[in-house]
Amino acid sequence: MSPSTPFDVAVVGAGVAGLAIAAGSAQLGLRTALIGPRAPVARAERSAPFDVRIYAIAPSAVDLLDRLKVWAAVDAARVQPVAKMRVFGDGGNELSFDAYQAALPRLATIVEESELLRALDAAAGFAPGLTRIEGAFDALQQEADAVRLALAGGQSVAARLVVAADGARSAVRAAAGIGAQELHYEQAAIVANFACERPHHGVAFQWFDPAEGVIALLPLPGERVSLVWSAPRLLAEALAADPGGLASRLSGRAQPHVGALTSIGPAQSFPLRRITVDRMVGRRLALVGDAAHVVHPLAGQGLNLGLADVSEVLRVLAGREDWRDPGDAVLLRRYERSRAEPVGLMRLATHALARLFARDDALSREVRNLGLSALNALPPLKTALIRHAAGPLARP
Questions:
Q1: CATH of the domain at 382
Q2: Which end is more exposed in the chain, N or C (fewer Cβ atoms within 10 Å of the end residue's Cβ)?
Q3: How, if at all, do strands 285-287 and 156-164 pair?
Q4: What tens digit of pLDDT does each residue of 152-190 get?
Q5: Structural domain that includes position 93
């Protein structure tokens, strides 16, 4: 292709969301460029058999990956269905979610980031009409009929639509002049994997504690679990300084359910924040994934939101009128309108829950524990919440 001939779509960012939208765009018959270095992929080792970065992906996200012909390439031995979730408040109250009671095959599927990247990278490699360019993004110029991207090393690419999938610190978003507001939670997430003494039976556990934060144990294949601990900043610093002590610190909560824990692999930590963008689209530009929104991880919905963005962009592109090009402003407005409510609701819900469970006054304790008990006593409402979290499945 001549450098002067624009691509239909240029995707900046080669993480999970970027790979998914690039593969999907190419499968729609659009000339697609995937721009950016390959994401680093964790390698399994005897001492660390699973990637420390894992996701609980919703049925709708699995549905998207299946439509992209990616899910079949994910190693079935490295995924774990979640059949049930038990949530505990600081007053001993419990809220449980059961896939069987909601008439669903599973609540979510646990999968490693590295496994998703491997399968998506292979799909991108086989997608016809997809050109991979590993140069780093440098600048952009938005014109009437295309966006011109300057890459490191002097290379340039033109596209009718640019999709920014380059993460929370999106350089494309900044270059396009789209503002973003960042709120720091004064917390950090500690992630680590453990072998457990007894089977977990596909059950995920979550504890809310105003002093220690939000602690989640997610099932992994075999007798293993993955920890995601959203801890207050000072506690997070102490935990990060003593990763070997994590298992003993968790023993009081984990022992009754899965027995003793033994560390398998290193722990990692990263600061928690919320990012809200002024808008999700610009001139011939759409933001997806962390470039468009970052929410608190207590609901485990960050990647699911990003893959829902991908699904909606692909739906809009597939349904566009023949005379509209992929970067038409009408199409971009359709995408932005469709994502405004689900992103806004998830941002509001996760922020409100994070604030509520961080408070340690008597009124907040009573409100949250009464709320857990009341919700647990209303099966129809629990079923509605489960189905909402599962997301919409494939459209005919």
A1: 3.50.50.60
A2: C
A3: parallel
A4: 888 999 999 999 999 999 999 999 999 999 999 989 999
A5: 7-39+49-182+272-390
